[in-house]
Automatic annotation (TrEMBL):
Family: Belongs to the ZNF277 family.
Biological source species: Megalops atlanticus
SMART domains reported for this sequence: ZnF_C2H2
Stretches assigned to the C2H2-type domain: 205-234
UniProt xrefs under InterPro entries: ZN622/Rei1/Reh1_Znf-C2H2, ZNF277, Znf_C2H2_sf, Znf_C2H2_type
Protein's UniProt name: C2H2-type domain-containing protein
UniProt keyword annotation of Hydrolase present: no
GO MF annotation: an example: zinc ion binding
Keywords: Metal-binding, Zinc, Zinc-finger
Length: 437
């Protein structure tokens, strides 16, 4: 199963996953082009080319126990790194990062402290927003230059007619004469590269919409005309970087921005939910790529196909909600790393570990509770894991109380508690109340 964020490296015999993986939904993409500059480590003198960013992230995790959250949403990674490199020389890293202790219930020598740098820190959030704003300004400046450029010259993608002067002449021609509409010219940026991308596909006899390859140009043209494929596929995110709307908000694509616009328009209308339909949850099996739209079906599939009875384990181990979350994340991670969670034997591929689980009957064999009931497994192995969202949650009083104890709590700073007691208005209210009959 393909997944994003998949970094498997060996350090002291342990695998490392730099950030949550993701079940395949859409290909990852980068918006604006980034030069291959050297990016320094935030905590030491090592530098890495930007094209090898994953190597730098791996270095941060393995050498410094530092994890940067949501790296793919950082608009300008080199500037982001330089900013924090300077800040870490001014103050201790613990002033900025959340500290995560792994294997908290195990031996002290096996415990490790990781530092998480994320936008929950207001300073980090402001930095990310400033970098996003700066990139947007650069994109708008580039777009304006292209609007004002009258040296544009290019032949139509579908005929031999040539256009010179302004890019809008060619784009409007293709929309009117060839029914090939890529949107308003003013919404496009990096237009020359966009047209080069489309031309390369056509030169490779590839349909611009379905991207199937044909034996000759005549067959390709007939296909695109008959199937009405003279358009680009909006779900192909290779094209996102050519539309200004994708740069508007941090981490949002044009589909998300558009859906927000639609919701805002709907707020002025009557709240009629009669035709609303929820997007179906598609939970993925713990062991294979099978997906189901209901939890009953996915549980039945895992039991019938793989012999894994989640309900039985839940009852036998008296699993509370957050323990179920940690168990699912633990099993996902072990299988992703090619390891049997029952006996800890390492295999070369996921297929091998699944075959081993079946042959050795280890599917229902769990390790000691201390191995998987750990704080690090609150974090999802797959960031879009619908199975986690649909786990059953008993609302009994005893379980609710237990669940409260199971959730990590960040203590407030009570260093000034004595002063607060002396100055609190409650002190006067209690004193006055004591005289009431």
């Amino acid at each position: 199963m393909a997944a994003r964020g998949d970094e498997r490296n060996m350090s002291g015999g342990q695998d490392s996953i730099l950030e949550p993986l993701s079940f395949p939904e859409r290909p990852c993409h980068r918006l604006s082009p980034e030069p291959d500059v050297a990016v320094p480590c935030v905590l030491c003198g090592e530098t890495t080319p930007l094209s090898e960013k994953e190597a730098l992230l791996r270095h941060l995790v393995l050498q410094h126990k530092l994890v940067i959250a949501d790296v793919k949403l950082i608009a300008d990674f080199p500037r982001y790194v330089l900013y924090w490199k300077k800040r870490f020389t001014e103050q201790p890293i613990t002033d900025f990062c959340s500290v995560i202790k792994t294997n908290s219930e195990g031996p002290v020598e096996k415990q490790e402290h990781y530092f998480l740098l994320c936008d929950a820190l207001p300073e980090d959030r402001v930095l990310r927003e400033q970098l996003q704003q700066r990139r947007l300004e650069e994109i708008l400046e580039q777009q304006q230059q292209e609007r004002d450029d009258h040296s544009f010259q290019r032949t139509c993608l579908f005929c031999s007619e040539e256009f010179s002067g302004n890019r809008s002449l060619l784009l409007n021609h293709m929309a009117k004469e060839h029914s090939f509409n890529v949107g308003l010219p003013d919404n496009i940026v990096y237009c020359t590269e966009f047209l080069n991308t489309l031309q390369a596909k056509l030169d490779n006899l590839q349909c611009l919409y379905c991207e199937k390859t044909f034996r000759d140009k005549t067959t390709l043209k007939d296909h695109m005309r008959k199937k009405q494929h003279r358009r680009i596929n909006a779900k192909n995110h290779e094209y996102d970087r050519f539309y200004v709307i994708n740069y508007l908000e941090l981490g949002k694509t044009w589909e998300e921005v558009q859906s927000e616009d639609d919701r805002e328009m709907g707020e002025d209308q009557d709240d009629d939910w009669s035709d609303w339909q929820a997007h179906p949850v598609r939970a993925v099996c713990l062991f294979c790529e099978h997906q189901s739209e209901t939890m009953d079906k996915i549980y039945a599939h895992m039991q019938e196909t793989h012999g894994f009875d989640f309900h039985k384990l839940k009852a036998e181990l008296d699993l509370r909600f957050y323990q179920q979350v940690k168990l699912v994340n633990y099993i996902r991670r072990e299988i992703h790393q090619g390891r049997c969670y029952g006996c800890q034997v390492k295999f070369g591929s996921k297929a091998e570990v699944l075959a081993h689980l079946t042959e050795s009957a280890h599917v229902m064999v769990l390790p000691e509770k201390s191995d998987w009931d750990q704080p690090q497994y609150y974090f999802p192995t797959y960031e879009n894991d619908a199975l986690l969202c649909a786990l059953s949650d008993s609302e009994s009083d005893s379980e609710s109380a237990d669940r409260g104890r199971d959730v990590p709590v960040i203590a407030e700073d009570i260093s000034e508690l004595r002063v607060l007691k002396q100055t609190s208005v409650l002190k006067h209210l209690l004193r006055d109340g004591g005289s009431c009959s």
